[in-house]
Amino acid sequence: MNQHNITNESLALALILVVVALLVSKKEKLGLEKDIIWSIARAIVQLVVVGYVLKYIFDLDNGWLTVSMVLFICLNAALNAKKRSRNIDNGFTISFIAITLSTALTLVVLISSRAIEFLPMQVIPISGMIAGNAMVAVGLCYSNLNQRFMDNQQKILEMLSLGASTKLASGSLIRDSIRAAMIPTVDAAKTVGLVSLPGMMSGMIFAGIDPVKAIKYQIMVTFMLLGTASVSTIIAGYLAYRRFYNERAQLRVMK
Amino acid sequence: MSLPASLLQLQDVSFSLNNRTLLAPVSFELNPGEFTLLTGPSGCGKSTLLKIIAALQNQTAGTILFKGQDIKQLKPEKYRQQVSYCFQTPALFGQTVRDNLALPYQIRGKKIDETKVKQWLERVNLPADILDKNAQALSGGEKQRVSLLRNLQFLPDVLLLDEITSALDEENKQNVNQIIASLVEEQQLAVLWVSHDSNEIRHAKNVITLQHHTTGSAEHEPA
C-alpha cells in the first residue's frame, strides 16, 4: 500500500489557498476577510483538539466513552440545527431527539449487519457523518416549515375554522418541508461517483485502498445518509409543527 | 326554574394588542333561528370579533359561553365544527375545488358525498364540473361560494359570515342571501353576519353596531 504522509511544512504551504481566498475577498470587497480568518483559526484548533481526543479514545477502546462521544456529536449537531428553528420553541430538544434517534437507528443497523464493528475508530467517524447529514436535513426542514407556515397562514386558518385538527391543517406543509429537506441527500445519492467522489471513498483511495473496496463503503454511506435524513426529518417535522400552535389549536404569532 | 342557556353568549369580550384596543368590550347573545347582523366602521374589530368567537384567536378579556360552557374549556376542533367561520377573502387550499369540499368530510372521517355536493353547487349557481377545476384559477366570486359551501356541508349550530358576498354580482348575492335566510328559518341556524349591504340588513333580526375603540362600547338593537 502506498501511503502518503502530509508534513507540517506542506500543510503550511497549502495555506496559500486561504491567502488566495483572502485576496479575492479584499479585491472584490466581499467583506469576508474576518470571517475567513476566524473560520480557519477555528477549524485548525477544533481539528487539532479532535485529533488528539480521537487518538486517546481509539487507544483506550472503551464502549462507554465511544457512546459518550457519539452523544457529544449529536449534542453539537442539535445545537447547530436549532439555529434555524426561529418560530419553533424547544428547537434544541426536538433536534436532539431527531438527530440522536436517527443516528442510533442507523448505527444499530450498520453494526448488526456487520457493515461496521463497534470500535471507536469505526463508530465515531461514521456517527460524525450521520449526525452531520441529519443536522443539515433537520435545519433545512425547520427553514422550510417556517417559510411554509408563514406563507400559508390564511389557508391554515380556514382549515382550522372548519374544525380540522392542527395535524390535518399542517399535513401538506409538513410533507413538503420534509421532501424539500431530503432533496439534497437524494440528489447527492443520484450523482455520487459521477459528479463527486465523496469524502469517505476519496479518503480511502487516498490512503491506498483498492477503489473497488472503497466503493462498497461509499455505497454503505449512501444507504445510511438516505436513511438518516428521512428518519431525522420525519421526527423533527412532526415534533416541530406543533410548536406553531398554542394549546387552543390557534396559530401562534410568527416572527 | 332557571332559564335555558343561550346558544352563544358573549360577556364583555374585548381585544387589545400592545396596549392598543382593537375591539372594545362587547356583549350579546345568539340563539337558534336568529339572523344577527354585525356592522360598524372599518377597523372597529368586526373580523377580530368573528375570529375570537370562532376560537381562532383569544380575547384579552371577557367570556364566551357556548351552550352554557366557557369555550376555553371545549375541545377547539369540536367547537369549530359547531361554530363555523367563513372568511371574506378565502384562500382555497389543495389542488382542486373537490379538495376543498372534501375537507369537511375528511375531518369527520367520511367519504365525500358527491350527490350532496353537486346539489349544493347547483344551489349557488356553480356547475358540477367545477369540482375538478384548479382551486386557484377561480374568480373571487366563485371562491367565495366554494368557501361558503365548505361551511355548509355539515350544518353548524352557528355560522359566522365575514362579508361573504362582497365579490358576488347582484343576482348571486340575492341567491346567497335567500339560502342563508332559509337555513336560519328552516334549520334553526344562528347566523352572525358582517355586512354593509342593505339587503342583508333587511333579513336581520338584530343589528349589532360596533363603535370605534375610543367610545368603548357596542350598540345592540333589533333591526
Furnish the topology, listing elements before pairings.
The complex is a heterodimer of chains A (255) and B (223).
Chain A: H1 8-14, H2 16-27, H3 33-60, H4 63-82, H5 91-112, H6 120-151, H7 153-161, H8 166-191, H9 199-206, H10 211-240
Chain B: E1 8-17, E2 20-30, E3 35-39, H1 46-53, E4 61-66, E5 69-70, H2 76-82, E6 83-86, H3 97-107, H4 114-123, H5 140-152, E7 158-162, H6 170-187, E8 190-194, H7 198-203, E9 206-210, E10 218-222
Parallel strand pairs in B: 3-8, 3-9, 6-7, 7-8
Antiparallel strand pairs in B: 1-2, 1-4, 4-5, 9-10
Helix pairs in contact in B: 3-5
Molecular structure report:
The complex is a heterodimer of chains A (255) and B (223). By secondary structure, chain A is mostly helical. Chain A has two domains: 7-60, no CATH class; 61-244, no CATH class. Chain A has helices spanning 8-14, 16-27, 33-60, 63-82, 91-112, 120-151, 153-161, 166-191, 199-206, 211-240. The mean pLDDT of chain A is 92. Chain B has a single domain (8-222), classed as Rossmann fold (3-Layer(aba) Sandwich). In chain B, the strands form two sheets. A six-stranded mixed sheet of chain B has the order 6-7-8-3-9-10, with helices on both faces. Chain B has a four-stranded antiparallel sheet with strand order 2-1-4-5, with helices on one face. Chain B is globular, with a radius of gyration of 17 Å. In chain B, helix 6 links the parallel strand 7 and strand 8. Chain B has seven helices and ten strands. The model of chain B has no long low-confidence stretch (mean pLDDT 90). Chain B is an alpha/beta fold. Classes of the chains: A mainly alpha (255), B alpha/beta (223). The interface between A and B is medium-sized, with 18 and 28 residues.
